[in-house]
Amino acid sequence: MAAFLTWLNQWQTGIDWIDDDHREIAAILNRLVEVNGHPLTQDPEIAQCRVFIVLDALIERTRRHFQAEEAFLRTIRFPGYEGHRCEHAMQLAEFADLRRSLEQDGAMRLSPDTLEEFKRWFFNHVVVEDRDYVDYYVGEVVTSAAYRAFHADGRVPGGPYRDRTD
Prior knowledge:
By secondary structure, this protein is mainly alpha-helical. It has helices at residues 16-36, 44-75, 81-105, 112-142, 145-150. It has one domain (15-161): Four Helix Bundle (Hemerythrin (Met), subunit A) (Up-down Bundle), CATH 1.20.120. The chain starts with 15 loop residues before the first helix and ends in a 16-residue tail after the last helix.
């Protein structure tokens, strides 16, 4: 079976830790689709538990990514920070609402529509929304004389989020 999401190099931001995060989130989405497609012949509670475990991993990984991304946006003084932060908050709230409603309904798996919504969210986040701050970062920060002088060693900084081990 083909992967639900296959990472394309054209989605790269050029900021390694962000690209790594995005690839990891895509891998978790692929895992979610995989466990969601397991036959329901097994114990229904086990089937539901598998979906919830991976959904929870997706929510937690996305939350950590958003925290690191927001710290980065504050560091580079991205003018669209507040709007981007609000998008993150809304997405996490939608994930939490989905998780809660699945549990309340006793759903064993995610609907195909829900999985497609995850895909649309991922593409919108990576390809559209993040491109705004990447363009700002490259155009305003990386090309500045102060940046070049400070980073004369040629490394691309990432602050504390660059060296994290999660």
